[in-house]
């Protein structure tokens, strides 16, 4: 029999790319994670990692197994939650803070999923930017969980009583007007974009600072034709031919026509999506809620393993 604890550890290792990072997230030692993965290899008879003196690299078998493990573990959590609810018919109220694009494109899919009515969750939602929702986690703030994003390492701070669980990465993509004549999916270099007009974040924000530094490292000094922090507006302006934009994948699920999405190898940036919650508010239904959310992000092709 495969140990479900080992499957959960496998998920963390493949998500974070190392035993040490997985151990830090799970509260284990790196040695304990290594022992669990060795035990899982014995249980399955499969080689899951290529080990060297300095690193471990998951095999294709490990990646395939982790994708199936995510669904299996979510089903087990749902089974246990259903069993608990069969003895207690009351619902659990969850007060959720969530940022706009996640509320627009992901939360409705969860609410409309066949599994949702059986989760026993009474959801109360507050849609706001991450800085505002974090305030709701402070004493007397009225939130149980905040779903936030972070670009780079700065820009957000939360109380030391709050724990953080990584949900997924929302990669930024370069978007150009279709009228510029570059074919969809074309691979271009940052230097080829240097003379083009750009739609950029308003200066001074944490996200804008990270993007400016990334562009500068690529020797890309954009000719700015618009400042905009609304991704829907940026996409609409790009579709109308005003300029290029850097937009996260999540915001492009219902994007306008007239745009071309490009792969620019030098421009690699993501919004890291986290669930923040206080230790005194954690429970099985909150865990199940986050698992279901993570599965939907996977189905939408939002990256769930760090590069």
SSE pattern, N- to C-terminal: HHHEEHEHHEHEEEHEHEEEH
Q: Bin the strand percentage.
A: 15-25%
Question: What percentage of residues falls in helices of 4 or more residues?
Answer: 25-40%
- Whole-number mean pLDDT: 84
Mind describing the biggest β-sheet?
9 strands, mixed
Q: Count of DSSP helices?
A: 10
Shape: globular
Tally of DSSP β-strands: 11
Terminus-to-terminus distance? 31 Å
Low-confidence stretches: 302-307
Helix and strand composition category:
alpha/beta
Instruction: Compute the CA-based radius of gyration.
Output: 21 Å
List keywords for this structure.
single chain, alpha/beta, nine-stranded mixed β-sheet, globular, disordered C terminus
Report what the structure shows:
By secondary structure, the protein is α/β, with parallel strands linked by helices. The protein has 10 helices and 11 strands. It has helices at 4-16, 19-26, 30-44, 60-87, 100-105, 107-111, 130-135, 206-217, 231-239, 284-299; strands at residues 49-51, 56-58, 92-98, 121-127, 145-151, 162-177, 197-200, 223-227, 244-248, 259-262, 270-278. The strands form 2 sheets. Strands 3, 4, 5, 6, 7, 8, 9, 10 and 11 form a 9-stranded mixed beta sheet that branches. Strands 1-2 form a two-stranded antiparallel sheet. Strand 1 and strand 2 (56-58) form a beta hairpin. The longest helix is centred in the N-terminal third of the chain and has 28 residues, at 60-87. It starts with a helix and ends in an 8-residue tail after the last helix. Residues 302-307 have low confidence and may be disordered.
């Amino acid at each position: 029999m495969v140990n479900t604890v080992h499957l959960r550890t496998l998920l963390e290792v493949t998500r974070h790319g190392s035993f040490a990072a997985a151990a830090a997230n799970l509260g284990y030692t790196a040695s304990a994670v290594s022992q669990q993965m060795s035990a899982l290899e014995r249980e399955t008879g499969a080689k899951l990692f290529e080990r060297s003196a300095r690193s471990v690299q998951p095999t294709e078998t490990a990646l395939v197994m982790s994708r199936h493990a995510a669904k299996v573990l979510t089903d087990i959590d749902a089974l246990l939650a259903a069993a608990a609810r069969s003895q207690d018919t009351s619902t659990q109220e969850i007060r959720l803070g969530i940022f706009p694009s996640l509320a627009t494109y992901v939360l409705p899919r969860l609410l409309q999923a066949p599994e949702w009515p059986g989760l026993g969750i009474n959801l109360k939602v507050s849609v706001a930017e991450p800085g505002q929702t974090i305030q709701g986690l402070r004493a007397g703030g009225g939130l149980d969980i905040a779903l936030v994003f972070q670009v780079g390492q700065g820009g957000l701070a939360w109380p030391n009583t709050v724990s953080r669980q990584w949900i997924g990465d929302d990669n930024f993509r370069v978007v150009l007007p279709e009228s510029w004549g570059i074919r969809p999916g074309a691979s271009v270099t940052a230097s080829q974009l240097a003379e083009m007009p750009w739609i950029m974040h308003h200066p001074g924000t944490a996200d804008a600072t990270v993007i400016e530094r990334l562009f500068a490292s690529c020797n890309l000094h954009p000719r700015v034709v618009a400042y905009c922090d609304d991704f829907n507006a940026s996409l609409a302006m790009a579709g109308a031919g005003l300029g290029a934009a850097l937009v996260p994948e999540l915001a492009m699920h219902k994007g306008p026509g007239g745009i071309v999405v490009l792969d620019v190898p030098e421009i690699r940036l993501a919004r890291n999506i986290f669930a923040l919650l206080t230790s005194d508010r954690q429970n099985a239904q909150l865990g199940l809620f986050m698992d279901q959310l993570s599965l939907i992000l996977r189905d939408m092709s939002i990256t769930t393993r760090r590069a």
